[in-house]
Automatic annotation (TrEMBL):
One of its GO terms (molecular function) is RNA polymerase II transcription regulatory region sequence-specific DNA binding. Residues 42-102 form the RING-type domain. Belongs to the NFX1 family. Keywords: Membrane, Metal-binding, Repeat, Transmembrane, Transmembrane helix, Zinc, Zinc-finger. GO terms for cellular component: nucleus. This is RING-type domain-containing protein. It comes from Pygocentrus nattereri. PANTHER family: NF-X1-TYPE ZINC FINGER PROTEIN NFXL1 (PTHR12360:SF1), NUCLEAR TRANSCRIPTION FACTOR, X-BOX BINDING 1 NFX1 (PTHR12360).
Length: 765
């Protein structure tokens, strides 16, 4: 029988690709529980079901119970139901339910014999090579739902797996050719459109291949109501509809119209035609339908709503009034009476003291007639599992077993065992075949491979493989992150009579041992290589001169062998930051014409250009110029003339008396004065740019007037008047060139002197 479990595993692989495997998983779970010791529990007594005990299996939920337990359960259930509901106790046959799924059985179905799972063998003998409570024969039960085939597994608990037979079936719509399919999953979809005509007889089904009747037409069309007066957009699936208008067609009497709302067929006869009675129904008369029936004037005498009295009013139209006659009424519980109007109900304030059907709570309903309602409170009693309370409505007798199922899992949770609630503490966890998933407590990324377990994992025995401090080698020792060591902390003894306690141990992480790998080590200056143990290696000097070329590339380092910080940008033969620095001055020859020495210390390559300033007078000998030595020595003759020029106007005078118009230049000035000069007449009234200017007639008249005025003045002076200064009539002498242009020369000269002084102060600072 144990061969059925791998068989079911193979079946599940076949079913998983097509169809539902829920029933197959249910069967496999039942087989798993039977194979595991103590996995099956009787929900009534909450005890394990042993292989030698007689059992009974429910046909609804396939739960297994002890036969004595289920017999007592059925007897108690029938007794409680009949004691509450039967007036003639024990004369009616009441069903009893399964404790788990509430599947009902008749009293005749109460188990009295011990059968195997398939029901073929009575009192099956326990066989260690078979499933417990199994006969070992082929099950041969009919599949559910019935398909004509029978189960081929050996006698087994739980439901039969889905039918594995292969049959040739067409698709759901019947259009495709038959294909071989599993009998349990023979319904298949061809993927084509159904295209069957819908009940509206206008449209066709647009759904893909399906079983059964097509769905109602989802489209909308214009449809008329039943009477044909109104039209509206309606669903094709509901073509019949009624509008809100009255029919209005003339009745056969010709006097009235039909007042029925939208209807089909003929309207019928006029409701007022024929013999009619008065409102009280005592007198009859034959009147045309246009005339109303008059009241007869007699007493109405219709029965009122109370059913005891009749209406005392005269024949009238409409409903009768409420009965107001005073009567003596008895309350519902028949304890009290009271005189009151007939239409009112009398309820007293007495509370019922009877116990409800649960036999625990009183009724407490006012004016109870004796048929107390069932108890609507929650039961709340602790169930046999001792974990939950009864969730049912308050009831008599014992509570149903706890319906909860608890999963007892292994340490990692991948393997579980379903047990009834209350058995989880006494059930051993299942054995797990998975590897332990606990995270490592040491530095390794994973533990050594071992099975899932409870408690602490074994000590790690893998190689440490941690990088040793100060080197790149890995530790070859076994893992030492958790090593048991004796604790040095001991409690002091209270006296000599007290025995010393056993030594305590604690887990500690030990450091890695020193690295013993021999490493060829070079000296500081890399002159020689010697083998040194990795943990003891260090820099050492071989005593030789360094010999690296200094930065000046003219001398080498004379210090003793020392370390040099490597720099990828410079070769190893070049000096580093730790080498000595060359302190000699530069002795390289200077370029021709430069009188200054090189300002840098000893250096590599050519000397930098000389940037010192040379003071030199300009060509006009007035301004001191400061020129860079490099520019002056590298310039040719023409450039030298431009450099030594102050760029001001030449202050020299030409022979004509005018100033030279050119900028500061070397050599003599060129006599090519082209300046135009104004000449005055003798009286200095007329100025013209000519060689000779003579006085005109106006000048002569002015001279005569002037002479006459002088004469009159002289005569006046002679007469004793105050002497007046004689007006100077001499021609003013012409000013020289320096006096004429001195204000134009002094301004640029002063500016140049100030600039030279500022430049000199900056150089000094």
């Amino acid at each position: 029988a144990k061969s059925d479990l791998p068989r079911l595993v193979a079946l599940s692989c076949r079913y998983s690709s097509r169809g539902d495997v829920s029933e197959l998983e249910r069967t496999r779970r039942c087989l798993n529980e039977v194979f595991q010791s103590g996995a099956i529990t009787c929900l009534i007594c909450i005890a394990s079901v042993k292989r030698t005990q007689a059992v009974w299996s429910c046909v609804g939920c396939y739960c297994i119970f002890h036969i004595p337990c289920i017999q007592k359960w059925a007897k108690d259930s029938i007794f409680l139901v009949s004691s509450v509901t039967d007036e003639d106790f024990g004369k009616k046959e009441h069903p009893w339910p399964c404790p788990k799924c509430r599947y009902e059985y008749s009293p005749q179905q109460t188990p009295c014999r011990y059968y195997c799972y398939c029901g073929k063998e009575v009192d099956p003998a326990p066989d260690p090579w078979l499933l417990p409570h199994s006969c070992g024969q082929v099950c041969d039960r009919e599949f559910k739902p019935p398909c004509g085939h029978r189960c081929l597994l050996l006698c087994h608990p739980g439901p039969c797996p889905p039918c594995p037979k292969m049959v040739s079936v067409s698709c759901l719509c019947g259009k495709a050719a038959p294909v071989p399919r599993r009998c349990s999953n023979k319904g298949w979809n061809c993927g084509k459109t159904c295209s069957r005509t819908l009940p509206c007889r206008i449209h066709t089904c647009t759904h893909t291949c399906h079983a059964g009747v097509c769905e109602p037409c989802p489209r909308v069309s214009v449809q008329k109501c039943v009477c044909g007066r109104s039209s509206a957009q309606r669903q094709c699936a509901s073509p019949l509809w009624h509008c809100d208008q009255a029919c209005g067609r003339p009745l056969p009497c010709g006097n009235h119209t039909c007042e029925r709302v939208c209807h089909a067929g003929a309207c019928g006869e006029c409701p007022r035609a024929g013999n009619r009675t008065c409102p009280c129904g005592k007198s009859k008369c034959a009147l045309p339908c246009t005339a109303d029936v008059p009241t007869c004037g007699d007493t109405c005498d219709k029965k009122l709503d109370c059913g005891l009295h009749s209406c005392s009013m005269r024949c009238h139209k409409g409903p009768c009034e409420t009965c107001r006659q005073a009567v003596t009424k008895q309350c519902r519980c028949e304890r009290h009476t009271k005189r009151m109007p007939c239409h009112k109900e009398y309820l007293c304030d007495s509370k019922c003291n009877k116990t409800r059907s649960c036999n625990r709570h009183p009724c407490k309903r006012k004016c109870c007639p004796g048929n107390c309602p069932p108890c609507d409170l929650s039961c709340g009693r602790m169930l046999g599992c001792r974990n939950h309370k009864c969730p049912s409505v308050c009831h008599p007798g014992s509570c149903y077993p706890c319906p909860e199922v608890v999963q007892v899992k292994c340490a990692c949770g991948s393997t579980s065992l379903s047990v009834p609630c209350g058995r989880e503490k006494s059930t051993k966890p299942p054995r797990c075949k998975e590897l332990c998933r606990n995270p490592p407590s040491c530095h390794h990324p994973s533990r050594e491979r071992h099975r899932c377990h409870f408690g602490t994992c074994p000590v790690c025995k893998q190689v440490c493989q941690l990088p040793l401090p100060g080197c790149t080698h890995l530790c070859p020792a076994p893992c030492h992150d958790q090593v048991l060591l004796k604790s040095n902390q001991r409690a002091p003894l209270a006296g000599p009579w007290e025995q010393p306690a056993a030594p305590a141990f604690e887990c500690k992480a030990l450091p890695c041992p020193p690295c013993q790998v021999p490493i060829p080590t070079a000296c500081l200056g890399e002159h020689e290589v010697s083998p040194v143990q990795c943990h003891a290696r260090g820099p050492f000097s071989c005593g030789r001169p360094c010999g690296r070329t200094l930065t000046c590339s003219n001398h080498s380092c004379s210090l003793e062998c020392h370390s040099v910080t490597p720099d990828p940008k410079i070769p190893k033969t070049e000096a580093g930051k730790e080498c000595e620095h060359c302190e000699e001055s530069c002795s390289k020859p200077r370029p021709s014409g430069c009188p200054h020495p090189c300002t840098l210390p000893c250096h590599r390559g050519n000397c930098p250009p000389c940037t010192q300033m040379i003071r030199q007078r300009c060509h006009c000998k007035i301004t001191n110029l400061y020129i860079e030595c490099l520019k002056l020595t590298a310039a040719d003759e023409e450039a030298r003339k431009l450099l030594t020029s102050c760029k001001n106007q030449c202050p020299k005078q030409l022979r004509c008396g005018h100033r030279c118009k050119e900028l500061c230049h070397a050599g003599d000035c060129v006599e090519n004065c082209s300046q135009r000069v104004k000449v005055k007449c003798p009286c200095k009234r007329i100025k013209k740019e000519e060689n000779l200017v003579l006085c005109d007639d106006i000048c002569k008249k002015l001279q005569r007037k002037y002479a006459e005025a002088e004469l009159e003045a002289f005569e006046k002076r002679q007469k004793g008047k105050r002497k007046k200064n004689r007006r100077n009539t001499e021609v003013e002498a012409e000013e020289g060139a320096w006096l004429k242009y001195r204000k134009y020369l002094l301004v640029p000269v002063c500016g140049i002197l100030l600039a030279v002084g500022a430049f000199y102060l900056l150089q000094v600072n």
